[in-house]
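Narrative progress, year one. The postdoctoral researcher (J.K.) led the effort to move from monomer predictions toward full complexes, under supervision of the PI. The following entry was the first complex the group processed end to end, covering 868 residues in total.
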Amino acid sequence: MGLWFSLFTVVILVLLVFMGVGVVGLNSLFGIVIPYVALLVFLVGIVYRVGKWTRAPVPFRIPTTCGQQKSHPWIKANNLESPYNVLGVMARMVLEVLLFRSLFRNTRAELRDGPRVVYGGTKWLWLAGLAFHWSFLLILLRHLRFFTEPIPFFVNLFESMDGLFEIGVPTLYMTDIIILLAVTYLFLRRVVIPQIRYISLAADYFPLFLILGVALSGVLMRHFYKVDIFKVKELAIGLFSFHPVVPEGIGLAFYIHLFLVCTLLAYFPFSKLMHMGGVFLSPTRNLANNNRMRRHVNPWNYPVKVHTYEAYEDEFREKMKAVGLPVEKE
Amino acid sequence: MSNVPKPDELMGIDHKPPKKGWMDVPVDFKPGTYSYPAKGKNLKILDMPNPREWSPTDEDWKLPENWKEIVREGFKDRLDKYRSFQLFMDICVRCGACADKCHFFIGSGDPKNMPVLRAELMRSVYRKDFTTSGKIFGKLAGARELTEDVIKEWFYYFYQCTECRRCSVFCPYGIDTAEITMMGRELLHLLGCGINWAMEPVANCFRTGNHLGIQPHGFKDTLEFFADDIEDLTGIKINVPLNKKGAEILFVVPSGDYFGDPGTYTCMGYMMLFHELGLDYTWSTYASEGGNFGLFTSHEMIKRLNAKIYAEAKRLGVKWILGGECGHMWRVMHQYMDTMNGPADFLEVPTSPITGTRFENAKSTKMVHITEFTSDLMKHNRLRLDPSRNDNLIVTFHDSCNPARAMGLIEEPRYVIKNVCNHFYEMPENTIKEQTFCCGGGAGLGNDENMEMRLRGGFPRGNAVRYVQEKYGVNRLACVCAIDRATLIPVCDYWAPGVEVTGVHEMVANALVMKGEKKRETNLRGEPLPGKEDIEDE
């Protein structure tokens, strides 16, 4: 259900552009109003969501340790997996965010006759996840050339690296290919692996289709239904300098691409895509495992009803005295 | 165990989920897979809501009239108080990396035991009540109405999670199902839906100081009984300091260690070690429990039960606290105690009176793990050890979930074991250290009515033990957890028959050469020492 609904929704979104731009000619709506609204929703939404999380306290220090704690000087502590200081925490987070270290650990459990269970390493999810996210980032950075004048050196650098093999005119970008493959893999595993299909919701398929749509429309308008790049840049710079203009004749493919991007931006804060912000805040990962070294304060700690020693002794005093246990009150 | 099918029948499972969506599969309370509910009398002792007699198989669970409101408010309250909870409700991408990491999923094939789905049981209600998309799109957004069936499902599956945190090791965002299960159990407790095997220990612990309800004179008797056994074995009369004011160290153990075999041997091990060192320490009848079933109940209950340890340390005027071999007790000591009941500024930074080592890693909590203490003694050569006395043991080590994943206590117990026995073999790497598998009976599930589920949950551990048994002839499974010492016995009997369970300090005591001891002929279990059995035969 979730799969078809998501696919259908993305198709509708594309049709909306055909109608809106292709038939009715609402170029300003799709070129100016919607991008502004989407960006606003994205920014306000993210700030709101992250703000909500950070306002919630972290009452206890609950890191999941994946290695030897710091104890005796003669036992080598693992400051990456069981960080005991800020440096360790930062290194752990950097590896987590940039290299998906936890996912790298992934294993697969297989039931065999016997009965036995065996574990094998499995890195495909890690690889596809990493390929997808890094391509996405590089593509995003490459796009800066549309919004900047002069174009920053690193954008040109990425672009030339990305197009290293100079296949075709215009050059085919490696990241474009990688992101299409990775998204396809991530989608297929949702459909093919029974357990993953079982847990998948519309909220899992929709962003995949949306990103696939964004990437495909991008590739199509670069290589097949070519759009006027100079006009695109004119529009982009206009938007970012708050003097929006809609140049005539950019091409429909561009509007499809832009509208899908806008949908993604606006959808982002309401969805699981917020894992981007959340990963930095996860209390099992971003705290040092120094609970016994340093006191961690719970801001809402409150007194509770306890059974005091006095009450305990009152109940058991006679029995304690009978066996010669010391008591406070005779 | 008589009702439990044979291993190959039990494992006649499939990891493929059913065709029907999980929201349409109601919970089935199959005997052997759930725990009996908390008795009203135990809830009354603790002033907990809705004490009553009921059964999970009843149609009517006798929930309070305004139960929906209670759950909703409890949910909101916890979202506001715990960033972890809010975050873990929001950021899961359902990548499925956790799916096959749970021992209960591996052993039962029930898709709701995939950590991601166990969390979805709660997220679905969260979406419906606390998110706009859930309110608008309902089921399509993965949201569902809070109904009594949902409560029944929560009860079944949140008491089919041992809060071992193995899944969180693999999650790219560190989502910790234990946090979610803990919140779920807290909400269930607001309705009076707990399990008795957790709540009776809690009620006992609250009143008598330990889970088993052993009163002060009983505690004294037990320890003195052990002292007599030790005298028979070694010829040395050891003294049992109890509630001793002004002692240097307060020693706190899980009550499992002085209640049932083989924990009792571990307990005798502590006593022999401390006697040999001439340690100035004391036991306490009031703080006669380190284990804390509050962890399996609610955060508030953790604090209520844990409070007595610092209070007793203060009353007795000790300098610092030493803790025995226990799993979840150490999660509480390491991650909660100082925050909840500290600061322990009336204590000193723990310093070993034997070696002078200052335990900098415990300088705030002032509480040291026994294997940290003993490994330090061994490193400084302060013990006379004869590891050959354990030569009849071919040992492997089970990392208890909490010390491994909440503390990072990994090398200390191994160092101790390697010093006291000559034959040590590791289980496969995907099943040890931070990837260790639960015994299947943690978090309050170690009761007998739940045996089938325990054996299913214990399957990955049992399977790894079986592997080293076949490969190296392992016959002893060492661990540093009292729940393990109770629950791994049926797990081994079932999945790796012939392997027995031991605490680490039992083996220490066997190897310990005590001053003035008589010639030892047996180990603590009365088994002939290796090399001595021939003499008996002659």
